[in-house]
Specification:
The chain has 121 residues and is α+β, with helices and mostly antiparallel strands. The protein has a domain of 84 residues. It is built from 2 helices and 3 strands, in the order H-H-E-E-E. A 3-stranded antiparallel β-sheet has the order 1-2-3. A hairpin with a 5-residue loop joins strand 2 and strand 3. The longest helix has 48 residues. The chain is rod-shaped. The protein starts with 8 loop residues before the first helix and ends in a 6-residue tail after the last strand. Pfam families: Tad (PF13400). It comes from Georgenia subflava. This is Putative Flp pilus-assembly TadG-like N-terminal domain-containing protein.
Length: 121
């Protein structure tokens, strides 16, 4: 019943299954890396904004430059400071984290956070 004609078809089917599993695995890994980079960027932005707001409103000590403080905190959290603006009592910090895409292109995960007195919200 076609035994000779079907010889080796299991190998081809097995290779196709392995290829599909490999593509799925690479996709999941790529998405996980992007989610991690976005989380890192957001964490760095949040902590940078809080540190900058603290420096801006420091009582009993030198105030310091809020954006310089934010930059130190952002870099310590493995991100890059893209922008820092101080408007009145509010600080807005923008960060980015580079990731390499599946085809080798450079992608950037960005995040923005703001901090200031509660009455500004």
């Amino acid at each position: 019943m076609g035994g000779a004609r079907e010889r080796g078809s299991g190998t081809v089917l097995g290779l196709a299954l392995v290829a599909v599993l490999l593509v799925l695995t690479l996709t999941v890994v790529g998405v996980a890396r992007a989610v991690h980079a976005r989380g890192t960027a957001q964490t760095a932005a949040d902590l940078g904004a809080l540190a900058a707001a603290t420096a801006l409103h420091r009582v009993g000590g030198p105030a310091g430059d809020p954006c310089a403080v934010a930059g130190e905190v952002v870099v310590a959290n493995e991100a890059e400071l893209v922008g820092c603006t101080v408007t009145g009592d509010e600080v807005r910090v923008t960060t980015r984290v580079p990731i390499i895409g599946a085809t080798g292109e450079l992608l950037l995960a960005r995040a923005t956070a703001r901090a200031g007195p509660a009455e500004n919200w």
